[in-house]
Amino acid sequence: MNTPMNTPTNTQSAPSAAEFTERSEGSGGSPVRLGALVPLTRPGWVEAGRHLLAGLELAVSEVNDAGGIDGRPLELAVRDTAADPERAAAAVDELAASGVAAIAGEYHSVVARTAAARAHALGVPFLCSSAVLDALVDEPSEWVARVAPAQSQGWRAYADFLLAGGRHRIAVATQPSVYWASGTRILRDHLTPRGGSVVELDTNTLTPEALCDALVDHGATALLLLVGHPEPAMPIVRAVRDDSRLADLLIGAPAGQPEFTGWATTLGRDGAGIPFLRYLPEHLGPLGERVGKELHQHLGEAPSFVAFEGWDTVTVLAEVLRSHGTDREAIAESWPRVAVEGARGPIRFSRTPGINVWQWAWAPVQIVDRDPAEPDRFRILHAG
Question: What per-residue confidence (pLDDT) applies to 354?
Fold first, then answer.
């Protein structure tokens, strides 16, 4: 099934964060404040942060249009993490001291891990929107929950997709990171018993051209980009596409780099045909369709799955606040009783083996790529 990614005909400018805050304060009563952690400046993935914030803001606006939290407006206190764990920890400290009821958001796994640990230590509920690292916290936490799937869930599905396509000799282009190391381990643990192999190629020591030579030497049938965006992911893609020796090599990006329009704008057809993970159902229901249209108008472009994750995060927290109040302990105690209709399906939290937070098990998983014949269109290759 193809999902179009068209430019919207509605050119109305998206409401700003200030306009959302003004609307909140005009709803009457003292605001219920939520902290929001979002990467909005580099080296953070700014495009992902913009989509995450759009989802958070849209849901806040809808909550307030429906009467807020028992007549009190919901308000976001947004903090830019810039993909910096220390900056995120400082933001959690500041938000906790300011009296927010809970903290939401974050996209980067390493940053979310630091934020979750700090929220746990301070006794502040944290609902993580997008970070997938399995070990979000080192010990079981009653304070932390997550709407994104665990990395192992999605990346095992990706490994099965590779095997089903006859791709057994897998090379991973890597950079030092807890997140990339975790992904490599998941892939190796899943592929090796099934006849696959994984070789690591360090992009800190290999130029894109030298990496191409290594791919030829290893006889790789697939290269997975476990590296940052846009550098060095985009130069690697260009080098591989330009190397006739690698014409049959599959380039993959399980972390989702091709999801955003900046990828297609910069790489064009070179960025198409690169399968990646995203967390949407094969078919959105009526609620998801409505939310998608609103997000499209707000963003001025087709919403990514990250925008849906933001909307689901605030929608869950709003229901918790209505049902259990704004006391932090009451919010944390409510995680196992959550039953909310999200934009991507019914959301409930449970304890999942190997996961130390309250986990939505599981958000829907797709493997998609951009159609080489029309890079602005997505092709669903597998839905789990």
Answer: 94
Place of tokens 């404040």: 33
- Largest Cα separation within the chain, whole Å, is 67
**Which DSSP symbol is given to 193?**
G
CA separation for the pair 232, 173 (Å, rounded) = 10
- Which residues, 6 or more positions from 62, have their beta carbon under 8 angstroms from its beta carbon? none
3-state helix, strand, coil in the chain (%, to 5): 45, 20, 35
- Which residue spans within 158-267 are E strands per DSSP? 169-174, 197-202, 222-226, 250-252
Share of the chain above pLDDT 70, in %: 93
Q: At CA 29, angle to CA 24 and CA 31, rounded to 5? A: 50
Asked whether the beta carbons of 90 and 112 are under 8 A apart, the reply is no
Query: pLDDT confidence of 29, banded at 50, 70, 90?
Result: confident
Lay out the sheet containing 126-128: strands in order across: 74-80, 32-38, 102-105, 126-128, 144-146, 358-360, 349-350
CB 307 within 8 A of CB 55: yes
pLDDT band of residue 365 (cuts 50, 70, 90) is: very high
* Residue 98 amino acid letter: S
CB atoms closer than 10 angstroms to residue 193: 8
> What residues contact residue 353 under an 8 Å CB cut-off, 6+ apart?
none
Q: From CA 283, how far away is CA 357, in angstroms rounded?
A: 28
- Asked if the model's pLDDT at residue 10 lies above 60, the reply is no
pLDDT value, residue 13: 35
Q: What's the Cα-to-Cα distance from 81 to each of 77, 85, 108, 113, 182, rounded to whole Å?
A: 13, 7, 9, 12, 22
Give dist(CA 129, CA 106) in Å, integer. 6
**Beta carbons of 145 and 359 less than 8 angstroms apart:** yes
Per-residue pLDDT tens for 37-94? 999 999 999 999 999 999 999 999 999 999 999 999 999 999 999 999 999 999 999 9
- CA–CA distance from 228 to each of 48, 179, 233, 338 (Å)? 13, 11, 6, 35
Q: Which pLDDT score is estimated for 28?
A: 59
Over the Cα atoms of the chain, what is R_g? Answer: 21
